[in-house]
Amino acid sequence: MRSKDKIAYFYDGDVGSVYFGPNHPMKPHRLCMTHHLVLSYDLHKKMEIYRPHKAYPSELAQFHSEDYVEFLHRIRPDTQNSFRTELARFNLGEDCPVFENLFEFCQIYTGGTIDAARRLNNQLCDVAINWAGGLHHAKKCEASGFCYINDLVLGILELLKHHARVLYIDIDVHHGDGVEEAFYFTDSGTHSTGRVMTVSFHKFGDLFFPGTGDVKEIGEREGKFYAINVPLKDGIDDTSFTRLFKTIISKVIEIYQPSAIVLQCGADSLAGDRLGCFNLSIDGHAECVKFVKKFNLPLLVTGGGGYTKENVARCWTVETGVLLDTELPNKIPQNEYLEYFAPDYSLKIPSRLIENFNSKSYLSTIKVQVMENLRHIQHAPSVQMQEVGTLLSIFSKSSVQYKSLLVWFHPTFISPTLTKMSRTQMNECISIHKTRKSRGMMSTTTETMTTITRLDHEAHSDGIQ
Ligand code: V1D
Ligand code: CA
After folding, report:
1. N or C: which end of the chain has fewer CB within 10 A?
2. Is the shortest distance between the CB of 146 and ligand 1 below 6 Å?
3. Does ligand 1 lie within 6 Å of residue 9's CB atom?
4. pLDDT by residue (tens digit) across 305-317?
5. Is residue 399 part of a domain?
6. Which residues of 334-361 are buried (b: 16+ CB within 10 A; e: fewer)?
7. Same domain for 88 and 210?
């Protein structure tokens, strides 16, 4: 069956040629292997392929601190010995080494995720894929766990320019701590509460990296109940994982009503991964992608971890097929990297005969705790009502705050010199809002529209021309 959805796929051949070092498990070459496998199945004929722009330092600084971005820009392998203090401060070293073309690598994978978000925002595609992205551990001021720039946070911030609520889902075996942290306490400059919800499924315990992601971590202050963690033990299999995933994600979507989804598909949750400890088959992993796709919301899909290279390429190729509604024959067609898939040259890998340490009662306890936390969102003033509240607070007083409203409605109008919203600009905001609502891009209630109309009058009588 041919997909009716429009799929945009981002890839730059340069991203696969960087090298983290001989003993480092992260092998960007897996991205080349994935791309060639995708081509060998002719999947490029069913989607639009783009080479992403290299994200500018100013774009990276929308989340990261300027001094960190500047340091990443200027540090070189041959000069790093003179910057020991900075290397320690920015957590560069064994997990996150300085290598040749590091900054360009960051610019490419981040450019892919930002471009993907922009195409979704402009409704130029339904699904956007960037297998080079998904580096979920990077923090505002430091690298962490093989991740330097957090392309996911930047992609979400981009989506928030057009979407009221963005749901982030992470199936990498590691906790998506960097994305969670960015939205954990406050609104991260998003002008209202709860515009991002993060959900991570991961191994937790036994000092497994990064050590965070307990079910009790639920967000704090403004962010309380908007972080969901699903801590799991070794050996989880397809049946337990997909059942839990579907139960939790369907409830999250029902209650939170996101208008866009970002799905991080780290392939280190597959059986036999060099760093992972789960027991998922490619079909089990891909089942999660298929499930999320069925909600028919704008979807940004990224890669992430994955350290058994040939399985990473297999997994992300199958998932590209899933997003295109295309089932792929198990026999891998001729391609440049065919020998990596020896001896059987098949696409699917089976799960293994290893123990599943996640008992039924353990999984049930986790599920109940997550569901209980979700009830707080349901029983809080509804997300739509919070939108009303935000609009009221933004519109109420200073002219500087009118700028915030403009950003919320009309991202292209962001201007550092803008202090007041003109009558024309405000009309434009209102019409954009109405268009978005009519296209179903915002779940705006009648109350919101009434509020806007009233605020329109108030702003008029406030002397805004
Ligand atoms: F085994 C190694 C060899 C060389 C360099 C690093 C590693 C290694 C393996 N596992 N490093 C790790 C993890 N780091 C630690 C450190 C010990 N320190 C106290 C911390 O355990 C990091 C694992 C990172 C996983 C990254 C990811 O898969 O989640 C990912 N997602 O998107 C991109 C990467
Ligand atoms: Ca995860």
Report:
1. N
2. yes
3. no
4. 999 999 999 999 9
5. yes
6. ebebeebbeeeeebebebeeeebebeee
7. yes
